[in-house]
Amino acid sequence: MTVPAIDFASLFAKSPNPYVVVDRDLTIVWMNDAYLAATMRRREDIAGRPMFEAFPSDPDSESHRLLQASFARVLRSGESDELALIRYDIVNAAGEMDERYWSATHTPLTDEAGELQFILQHTVDVTELHGLRRLRDEMGLVRRADAIQSRNRDLSEERDRFRMFFEQAPGFVAVLGGPNHVFMMANAAYRRLTGGRELIGKPLAEALPEVVEQGFVDLLDRVRAARKTYLGERAEVLLLNDDSDEPSRRFLNFAYQPLIEDGEVAAILVQGHDVTDEVLAAEGQRLLINELNHRVKNTLAIVQGLAAQSFRKLDGAQDAMAAFDARLHALAAAHSLLTERNWEPAQLAETVRRAVEATAGLDVSRFSFAGPDLTLSPQTGVSLAMIVHELSTNAIKYGALSTSEGTVSIAWSLEPDGDRAAVNLEWRERGGPPVTPPSRRGFGTRLIERGLSAEGRNNVALEFLPEGVRCILVMRIEHAS
Questions:
Q1: How many CB atoms within 10 Å of residue 400?
Q2: Which 3 state secondary structure label does DSSP give 316?
């Protein structure tokens, strides 16, 4: 059966229901006869005139504000809006203002591209009904209508506010619905990240096809099946954009959060931050640090070569050369520890243990270590490593490690003081030969006593007790209170 063509323009023109059409500027562009009858106007008097000029009202009145707000919501959201009840007085045939009550629906009319062009107002004169309702106030009908309209207005404003906050969120946010991960929402940051592509209503695999082979669709499937949040840290992703055929390499910190409704995963919330600049800066820093490490190692090798040539020409300088070489190796070991950590703060325990291992070798089993987990700045770490090397060397030559029964304990503690703290480290030798204070201060002793002197309030106290050498180091570090 063939459906006959319908002339909707004629249909609306002859409808007994009042209809009027306004453009985006709220200028009246069309109305039917029923509208002219309801408003007691002639077509030529209102056609082409702004709505609030054709039907004037006090801009500060509730009537004006309600009608204007309803039009504004349609223009802003692209969705229909209703006024359950509005008082809007109009001029009658005698030129006097009539108290009138209306119920109105505002419907957006869009073009083929989906852009809002006009608003269709369907308005009904409910003045008589309102008069009857006045007589039945005890039933609360009008109050309920007003309350519903007020709640709807509040909800609409809250929705608009949420959309504004969502759109302006600094991180990228999107909501993917259903098993095909269809874009339900995506804020400005997400659209910028994906090159401004059309996303809403499209499955992820269609909207961003390049991410399929990179495993992100499979990852979303797993999140949906397991109902568990997934956190990605510095995840690399290649994204296409309109400016180039080559994908852009980005690094993202993100979360896939399943949203549960009625016991089922209704959607997945995607949120995160683009940390590409941070990752690239870290890569650049690593390259610079590697270059620095290479140059330092070359410098240490040159110093070692120069020292060997210099000491070779001096009679009886073998012991001095050996001591210098050992100190240089200790410095190189401390530098290697910092190199492994890209010159970031090093753990105190690891710094001490490595310095001992580099000097004492297998005798490290005769050491005990005790203290909390603490970090040291690179400068303090190097100084501490050199001091521990000198103490270990002296213990091997003259102290506890020169006998088979001697031991060394290294213990440290923390004394907080606001955003600073004092680290007290004690070196204590036991079981070695009786100790007598040296008659002179050699280079090693001076290095121990002055190794931390250049770093603010740090200090070192060296005691030659009969039962064994005792050394107290006080180091100032940053401390989170």
A1: 26
A2: coil
> Structure pTM?
0.40
- Sheet harboring 244-261: ordered strands across? 182-186, 172-177, 264-274, 244-261, 230-241
378 domain-assigned: yes
pLDDT at 410: 93
Distance from C-alpha of 343 to C-alpha of 345, rounded to nearest angstrom: 7
Clarify whether residues 159 and 211 are in a common domain: no
- Among 122, 138, 167, which residue terminates a domain? 167
What's the rounded Cα separation, in Å, for the pair 185 and 207? 13
Helix extents (H) in 341-438:
348-360, 378-397
Query: What is the CATH number for 350?
Result: 3.30.565.10
297 falls within a domain? no
Q: Which two tokens stand for residue 374?
A: 């603490």
Q: DSSP class of residue 17?
A: S
DSSP string, 87-154: E--EE-TTS-EEP-EEEEEEEEEE-TTS-EEEEEEEEEE-HHHHHHHHHTGGGTHHHHHHHHHHHHHH
Strand 172-177 relative to strand 28-31: parallel, antiparallel, unpaired?
unpaired
User: How do residues 101-140 score in pLDDT, each as one tens digit?
Assistant: 888 999 999 988 889 999 999 988 888 776 655 555 545 5
Q: How many CA atoms lie within 13 A of 350 on its CB side?
A: 16
- Cα gap 68→79, rounded to integer Å: 15
- Say whether both 94 and 197 belong to one domain: no
Burial bucket for residue 302 (CB in 10 Å: 0-12, 13-18, 19+) = exposed
Structural domain boundaries enclosing 468: 345-478
Kindly state whether residue 316 falls inside one of the protein's structural domains. Answer: no
Distance of alpha carbon 219 from alpha carbon 224, whole angstroms? 9
